[in-house]
Structure formats: structure tokens, C-alpha cells
Specification:
about 40% helix; alpha/beta; two-stranded antiparallel ribbon; single chain; 5-stranded parallel sheet
Length: about 450
């Protein structure tokens, strides 16, 4: 199963929304409606869905210490039948992942819906989780705002699936998809007062990150300093205003410092960042003279589309052309080590790894921080990608051929054309084929 998670068992609070979701997923009769967990960026949508999926998974759930956890928030083991994180996936990929998890052997949304109709009538509820639907597709302008691929997935798969008796469909999406999902879904808005994270929820999470009791190998200046950690956590929670991404970024930045915050010093809380972008900048500033280096390596990920960037020449080339500074495989290895908390690894069906930023809001912030225009960036990306493509003297460019890489990893070339938002930037004689070709 797929779900977003971070190292360590740091989840805190959200008792009401989790309890309602567990009751909905396990009730014998059901109410005929799916559920969509929505809210503003960074409010914790994926964390809520990930908690349901994680505790349902037999292997992962067995490692979680449930001491002190409200029992009504814990789903039965095996409750979730299939879970897919839809970020940068097309409809066909989402269908394939669900079909594989259910062992249906179906091909295409119509066949999957038919198989679910038969299965839903024969046994216990089939609980399916699809997160980050608004981030599906290539992350180009065509898919922004809930249009393009997110709308296609909603229309052709999710909405009809939610109407199948015996299927309990749980979706995570931003609010722009509530209309397309339709009346067969009940919205659970995490920004609503009755679902919003309380200051105690966020403070509990921050304190756990600072203390890192679940990561004994992690260095933290707050190890064993429970009272200090709680004091700082309360201040971070007050500024977070329910936004977990801010809390996560700020807490991990503070944890990376060599010494703890002096809470006896007047005004220390006023020096905390005020919003997510500032918190991320504060984290990057901690690298000192290496800040430009980490920024240029992460900036390439911020502009990547599809599933992300593989290690090797694709990543180093795009970092070089966008930043205007030569980048090497050594830089890739370094940034994966020092900034691992903000880089997510995605493994495709061929067991090839690609890397992307942990959260869409961080990518948006980094893209906004560059002095280049969108067109200048895209031209630089096209120039870099063209330099990687073999150019035979007697035929068209081999856009799907393997280019040399470092580390022995062949990059997944299928998303390569998706990095080019404007075909007009590429000479017709060397234009790549349609992204729909494989």
C-alpha cells in the first residue's frame, strides 16, 4: 500500500475526524457516501489518511505503540483494501495500483468498477483510499486548480466508484475538487472548527519531533529535555494555527540546531518564523555557506514533473542549467543526506527510484523564490534535457533511449517529455513524441 509518512511515530490528536472515519469504514450498513478529507495546504490531510492506512497495514501497524491512543481512532488490521497516493499519477496508474492491491487483474476504469460492483455485493466493505487527487497528473498548468488529470480521475473513477454498494471510498483533495466529486461524497474539512487541529494536537506533535524518542539514532539538542521541548512546542503551535506543515518544518529546523533554544531569554518566541515559506527559508539558512548548494539541488526537484527526478545525469543536468552552476552526483548524494526530511523517494513499478520534494507547498515556495521567469526556466530545462538525448546522424532523436547515469540507475525516460511545457521551444526535427506513448 502507498501512503505518505515520515520516520518516527509522531502523529498527534485529530480524535474526532479519525473516530468518525473509523466508524464510517467499519459500520456494517454504511450510508452510501464516500468521504473526502479536505482543507487548506499543509493542514494535515495526508497525515489523517496516512494514519488510517498505516494502522490498517498488518506489518506497519504492528510496530506502532498504541499506549494512550484513543481506541476509537484505530481501524481494525486489514481494514483498508487498497491505498494509492495519486500525486503525479495518471488515471491509468491509479486504476492499475488499485486493481493490483485488490488482485482483480482488471485493465481500465470500467473493468475495475465492474469488478468492484461484484465484489462489493459478496462480502465485507471494500475500503479504498486515494490521497492527493488534486496533485495527480504532470503538475503543469493544464492540471492546476483541479482541472485536467485530477478532474478526469474524479469523473471517470472516483465518483462512480463511490456509488458502488459495499465500497467505502476515502479521498484526500484540496477544496477545488469538492464540486466535481459531487453529492455522493461527504466533505470533512480540516479547517472547520470541529475538525481543526487544536493547539494541543500541534504542540504534542512538535514536542515529539523535538524529543525524537522514536528515533534514538537521531541527534537532537532536546533529548531528555521534556519541559523545554513542551514550552517551545506550545509557542510553535500558537504560530502554526493548525498548519502541520509549518509545525513540521519549524520543529525539524530547531531539532537540527547544535544547541536548544534558550527559553529564558526574553523574546525568543518572537524569533520563530511566521509562515510555511519563512519556516522553510529558516531551515535552508541553517546550512550557512552551503545554503546556495542545497537550494539549487532542491530547486530542480521543485520544477520537476511526473514522479520526480532520478539520480544521475538528469538531476545534475537540470540543477546545473536552472541554477547556472555546475552540479555533480556528489551534490545529489550530499543533499539526499542532509535534507532527507524534505525529499520523498518514489519507487515505480520497475523498481526505479525518483525523488521529489516532500510537499507541494514547499515546491511552490522554491519556484517563487527564483529570479527567472517561468519561460526562462522551461527553456533551460528543455536545453538540459536535449543535451541528454542521443542524436543519431541518420534519424530522429532517441527520446526514450537510456542516457548514461551515475550510480548505475537508468532514469525513467517516459516522463521526460512532460518536463517541456511548451513544444514550441523544441525544434520540430527533434521534438519528443507524445507523453502518452510508452
Amino acid at each position: 500500500m502507498e501512503f505518505e509518512s515520515e520516520q518516527g511515530m509522531y502523529f498527534s490528536g485529530r480524535v474526532r475526524v479519525l473516530s468518525e472515519l473509523v466508524e464510517w469504514a467499519t459500520s456494517p450498513g454504511g450510508d452510501g457516501h464516500g468521504r473526502v478529507v479536505t482543507g487548506s495546504p499543509g493542514c494535515g490531510k495526508s497525515a489523517v489518511l496516512g494514519r488510517i492506512v498505516a494502522l490498517s497495514d498488518p506489518e506497519y501497524g504492528s510496530r506502532v505503540d498504541l499506549h494512550g491512543v484513543v481506541r476509537s481512532t484505530v481501524p481494525p488490521v486489514g481494514c483498508v483494501s487498497a491505498a494509492v497516493h495519486a500525486r503525479h499519477k495518471r488515471l491509468e496508474e491509479v486504476v492499475a495500483r488499485i486493481a493490483s492491491a485488490l488482485n482483480t487483474g482488471t485493465d481500465g476504469p470500467a473493468a475495475l468498477l465492474q469488478a468492484l460492483t461484484l465484489r462489493g455485493c459478496q462480502g465485507p466493505p471494500v475500503v479504498i483510499v486515494v490521497d492527493a487527487v488534486d496533485e495527480a497528473g504532470s503538475d503543469t498548468a493544464a492540471d492546476a486548480g483541479g482541472h485536467g488529470e485530477p478532474r478526469r480521475i474524479t469523473r471517470e473513477l472516483l465518483r462512480p466508484m463511490s456509488e458502488i454498494p459495499g465500497v467505502r471510498l476515502l479521498v484526500g483533495a484540496r477544496q477545488e475538487l469538492l464540486g466535481p466529486l459531487g453529492s455522493t461524497f461527504t466533505a470533512m474539512d480540516l479547517d472547520r472548527e470541529d475538525y481543526r487541529a487544536t493547539p494541543e494536537d500541534v504542540s504534542g506533535y512538535v514536542a515529539k519531533v523535538l524529543l525524537a524518542n522514536d528515533e534514538p539514532e537521531t541527534t537532537t539538542p532536546y533529548r531528555g529535555q521534556v519541559d523545554r521541548a513542551r514550552t517551545i512546542a506550545d509557542a510553535v503551535a500558537e504560530k502554526a494555527a493548525g498548519v502541520y506543515l509549518y509545525a513540521r518544518t519549524t520543529a525539524r529546523t530547531l531539532r537540527s540546531d547544535a544547541s536548544p533554544v534558550d527559553t529564558d531569554r526574553p523574546g525568543w518566541a518572537d524569533e520563530l518564523p511566521s509562515e510555511v515559506g519563512e519556516a522553510f527559508d529558516d531551515y535552508l539558512a541553517r546550512f550557512g555557506p552551503d545554503e546556495p548548494r542545497v537550494r539549487r539541488m532542491l530547486l530542480a526537484l521543485a520544477f520537476s514533473e511526473g514522479k520526480g527526478l532520478p539520480r544521475g545525469r538528469v538531476w545534475t543536468t537540470l540543477s546545473s542549467v536552472v541554477a547556472g552552476v555546475p552540479c555533480t552526483e556528489e551534490d545529489v548524494t550530499w543533499v539526499l543526506d542532509v535534507a532527507e526530511a524534505y525529499v520523498a523517494e518514489v519507487v515505480d513499478e520497475d523498481q526505479r527510484s525518483a525523488y521529489r520534494l516532500y510537499h507541494k507547498a514547499l515546491a511552490e515556495h522554491l519556484r517563487a523564490s527564483t529570479d527567472l521567469t517561468a519561460e526562462q526556466v522551461q527553456r533551460a530545462i528543455v536545453r538540459g534535457l536535449r543535451s541528454l538525448v542521443p542524436l543519431p546522424t541518420d534519424g530522429p532523436a532517441d527520446w526514450f533511449g537510456t542516457v548514461g547515469t551515475c550510480g548505475g540507475t537508468s532514469p525513467p525516460m517516459r516522463p521526460l517529455p512532460e518536463c517541456c511545457r511548451s513544444w514550441s521551444m523544441i525544434p520540430a526535427s527533434s521534438s519528443p513524441p507524445s507523453p502518452d506513448r510508452s
